[in-house]
Amino acid sequence: MSKHPNAQAHQVAGGAHHRPLNREDYKTLSLSALGGTLEFYDFVVFVFFANVIGALFFPADMPEWMRQLQTLGIFAAGYLARPLGGIIIAHYGDKIGRKKMFTLSIFLMAVPTLVIGLLPTYASIGIAAPLLLLLMRVLQGAAIGGEMPGAWVFVAEHSPAKNYGLAIGTLTSGITGGIFLGSIFGVWLNSTYTQAEIHDWAWRMPFIVGGVLGLVSVYLRKFLHETPLFQDMQKRKAADVEMPIKTILREHKQACWLVALMTWVLSTAVVVVVLMTPSYLQKVFHIAPAAAMMANAVATVTLTIGCVFWGWLNDKIGTKWTMVLGWGGMTASAYFFYLNLPGEDTLVLRYALVGFFVGSISLLPIVGVRAFPVAVRFTGLSFAYNMAYAVFGGLTPMLVSVWQQVDVMAPAHYVAAMGVLGASIGFFWPMASRGWQPKVRK
């Protein structure tokens, strides 16, 4: 048996352990990461212009709180649609091929994004405006539900075994880069145009640009090839006639729980540290909005770098100790960051540090892809990840907000607790390191 810390990667990777990354691998990885960046940008850019959208797509005489609530409700609809879209796309990904569904997911994201940028407002078509906006948001949610698990599986099954973690970490960094791209576009738009111009027409630009670039990415993905593991499975006619979701629920419950718990860690890290903290810094510690957003932008960059680093380290020392170091470090750096607030002199440095350790979220797909066999891999990862994200991603903001009323350090405690959970999973749960193992017949 190989002594390499990730010798089990041959079960998920598309190349022999000793094979180096080649030109085709770099093309697959770059096109996949680019598509992931654009698709996640399309999904999150909505939140950066939620106030403008609320003013344009709901009646002018509607109370501000109700307008904001309904706008955020439309935003949340995208999250609620993730599990259904993910399961459907993954089902066909396990049946007819990874590549076809990988391309379909970005098409389903690009078209609604472009449509949002072209939609008439409430002043033009009345109640049809928010209803069409809701429909487009649901389609976006369905698309993102299939894109992320599909991208992880696609890249994993193409990569050489010795670079398995690096490939998935690099892809994940591209996906998180979509958040940074959205925030940068928002900053540029607000610094270039007046609020009146943004309200009148400029708000459409990020959606139209995102939609057009998404369609370009659809075209580029036609140059990708089906994964060798799926092709091998088809040649051996190994695809089960049973619906993959039935197989998952009957035979792979442990893997589902493993991915679900790791998704809890991931969703907490992203939602609390990246999405909620800028507002938290301003409201609780009265840090200037510009300073808070600048620190957040730097943390997003180090998060993106961290995704690559922790994937690379996984290939070097194995999953067990990478999880202990990555998520254990997230616990320590979370307390170092939050307990020293406001500390504006070192705010950017401390935020950057915790962002780097949050990059260990790339360990979720590294563990999750290999937790399921090839025949049901796409469905298993998509089902467990999207169902867990719908629950934990939705409950986390409310839980932290309520907890914060009695303890201002609630974000620190919650993120730190999730870091302990992630490190413990890596240290004590063998499947996290070994992945799915076929049963040996006696």
Automatic annotation (TrEMBL):
Pfam families, alphabetically?
Answer: MFS_1
Give the stretches traversing the membrane.
Answer: 40-60, 72-92, 104-125, 166-189, 201-220, 255-281, 287-312, 324-341, 347-367, 412-432
- The scientific name of the source species is Comamonas avium
> How does the protein associate with the membrane?
Multi-pass membrane protein
**Residues of the Major facilitator superfamily (MFS) profile domain:** 28-434
Q: What is its main location?
A: membrane
Q: What is this protein called?
A: MFS transporter
Keywords, ordered alphabetically: Cell membrane, Membrane, Symport, Transmembrane, Transmembrane helix, Transport
Cross-referenced InterPro entries: H+-coupled_symporters (IPR051084), MFS (IPR011701), MFS_dom (IPR020846), MFS_trans_sf (IPR036259)
List locations, semicolon-separated.
Cell membrane
Top-level taxon of origin: Bacteria
Record bears the keyword Secreted: no
